[in-house]
Amino acid sequence: xxxxxxSENITGKELSALREKFAVALEPELWKSPDKLRxxxxxxxxxxxRNQTAVDAELIAAGRRLKVIxxxxxxxxxxxxxxxxxxxxVVVYAPEQNSVSVAELAIGLMxxxxxxxxxxxxxxxxxxWDRKRFMGGVELYGKTLGIVGMGRIxxxxxxxxxxxxxxxxxxxxxxxxxxxVIIETRARLTGxxxxxxxxxFVSCHVPETPRTINLFDYEKFCRMKSSAFFVNTSxxxxxxxxxxxxxxxEKRLAGAALDVRVKEPPDSPLSTADNVILAPHIGAFTVxxxxxxxxxxxxxxxxxxxxxxxxNFFNFATPRREKTV
Length: 325
Known about the structure:
Blueprint: E1 4-6, H1 13-21, E2 24-26, H2 34-40, E3 46-49, H3 57-62, E4 68-71, H4 81-86, E5 90-92, H5 99-115, H6 117-125, E6 144-148, H7 152-163, E7 167-171, H8 180-185, E8 188-189, H9 192-198, E9 201-204, H10 218-222, E10 229-232, H11 241-249, E11 255-258, E12 276-278, H12 287-305
Parallel strand pairs: 1-2, 1-3, 3-4, 4-5, 6-7, 6-9, 7-8, 9-10, 10-11, 11-12
Helix pairs in contact: 1-12, 5-7
């Protein structure tokens, strides 16, 4: 039986190296079949997932020999970390390895919104040459970027915005005025209401927690400038999509760009809005970012399976199971 179960589409040099050391069952579609997944995990010592596999308490209980859960990404919403910790199972992930990729996408979406790049592309490809239609674009230079969440990705986004000549204001209740991320970006740390009222672009970079779900609702969007743009590359559930659709329809803000959705794949009115740019959760999907993510997680899984300590772990560095059967 396999020591390592891979239930989603995960590839890379380090995964190939893992397959040379351990018995690896690579089943990219297994996450779609919970019953088959529970059966397959019974003899696995490790499971590697992205964000599709529901590593819940029931699945963890079925993994009677499980030592480590590897999440190829930063978010752990699909992993019951409490159940894993209670069972003594190490949870490893990639907290910073794809940060540059996501930050660059956030900046790219701002540029695309400011200059209506997707609409201009569609227009030109249709045979039109309607330059006057796209006369209303704006520059990022001299504009104010409001960042909600000054973690690693928020910090990197702010640094890139500074290079484009933007002013940066930020809201993050976990960050102090003398924190390095504030000092290095020269951002003005303020309240959420001030960020919404003053920013020309609002970029969201918060994790999904009970306090951040629906953080951005209709009322919040109404506090933004009617000329402002909203960008979300963090987690879909932090946005009330019905509220965003209503605000856009009422022209409470100029446009929005979303890489993440409440339900993926989604089904909402935002799909037909002209002033919305949608991407299928590709923020981390660069060649370089994915290589770093897969390398980090595979190396930590290998370390745990060979009795060594993981580096990027959520709970503890080595398994705490009394025994495996």
